[in-house]
Amino acid sequence: MHPSAEAIGLAPALAVGLLIAYRGDPVSRARVAAGALGVGLVFVAFVTQLEPLANHTFLWAHLLQNVVLAEWAPLLLVLAIPPRLAGRAAGFPLFRPFVALPLWLVTYYTWHLPWIYDTALRNPHSLLHLEHLTYLAAGICVWWPVVHGRSSAGAKAAYLFAAFVLASPLGLLLALIPRAIYPFYVHVPRSWGPGPLVDQQIAGVTMAAEEAIVFFGAFAAYLLRFLADEQASGQISPSGKRPAARARPAGLRAAPGSARSRH
Q: What is the mean pLDDT of residues 6-15?
């Protein structure tokens, strides 16, 4: 085992926070399971062999940790929040869609700039922890409007589609750039595994595929819910067309104020 501060500090703190949030109200098993899985992902990502691989050898391992902190664990933790507590935080500015999404994107892209990325890796006991905390915080913000927001299913689908479209270029760029762009991983000694460029390509492809599954999958789910709601309300017919206005039955009297036929 190779525990880091995230495993021995952050994960237990998240677990304690959820236990405090659950006090006083009955909590469904689904919420408890989501919270346990979210905390467990953070713990596993920073206590197993993935931790030294990320800090000393492979870019793909570090990007996998980033994905856990910025996307997977935040979604599960937000799902675990009970409605009562979520209602109290409804007006928090960082949980509004037009704030949360830009904040998450800026956090993601900024930390992946080569000189910032390398500086964080060269300061594993300070700046790297800050990077991980900001990923988790921004991830919670970006998922909050989806899970606890009051917007319609159509608005949430549009929000998730925007997140997918705006975030996916990062992984694609890493996969397509013809040279390794992070000097830290170029110069680390490797006794096995792919070289720096192939390592970067694997990381980029994995990141792009993961975001396609998570964000596009969530977008598709909310889009289907939106279409189902529209159909249920009669706005869209099963054929996909809006229902035509019904013809007035013959024999009805003219509406008040309309011209009457003369005898």
A: 95
pLDDT one-digit tens code per residue, 106-127: 999 999 999 999 999 999 999 9
> What is the residue whose two structure tokens read 């606890």?
148
Find out whether 170 and 109 touch, Cβ atoms under 8 Å. yes
CB 67: neighbour CB atoms within 10 A?
Answer: 22
Query: What average pLDDT is seen over the chain?
Result: 89
> Would you kindly state where each structural domain of the chain is located, as residue ranges?
5-232
Q: What is the per-residue burial (b if ≥16 Cβ within 10 Å, else e) of 97-129?
A: beebbebbbebbeebbeeeebbebbeeeeeebb
Q: Give the other-Cβ count within 10 Å of 218's Cβ.
A: 20
With tokens 């993601």, the residue in question is 108
Q: Where are the strands (E) in the chain, listed by range?
A: none
Segment 34-72, tens digit of pLDDT: 999 999 999 999 999 999 999 999 999 999 999 999 999
CA angle at 128 for the pair 104 and 198, rounded to the nearest 5°: 80
